[in-house]
Amino acid sequence: MSKRVSIHVVKNGDVWKNKKAGAERASSVHDTKSDALDRAKELAKSHPLGQVVVHGQDGKIQTEYTYRKDPFPPEG
After folding, report:
1. CA dihedral 65, 69, 71, 75 (to 10 degrees)
2. What is the DSSP letter of 29?
3. Rounded CA gap, 33 and 37, in Å?
4. Which of 37, 54, 61, 72 lies 20 to 30 Å from 9, alpha-carbon distance?
5. Strand 50-55's sheet: what is its strand order?
6. Rg, Å, the chain Cα set
7. What pLDDT is stored for residue 30 in this prediction?
8. What pTM was computed for the model?
């Protein structure tokens, strides 16, 4: 089974960055959160199991998107 790849959308100064969980450097840098989110979704969808974790300006997680088959879907 494939391991989940998480891409975090985070604010850094005046820019928004996409950063793969565990990576030291950003995958991409954008002027707007919308552009960063669009690119993060593309990156996540390119993996067998991808996830986008969106952070607000305060750094707190706002929402998450999971792509492909999640091995542990929530019940209900």
Report:
1. 70
2. E
3. 6
4. 72
5. 28-30, 15-20, 5-12, 50-55, 61-67
6. 12
7. 98
8. 0.86
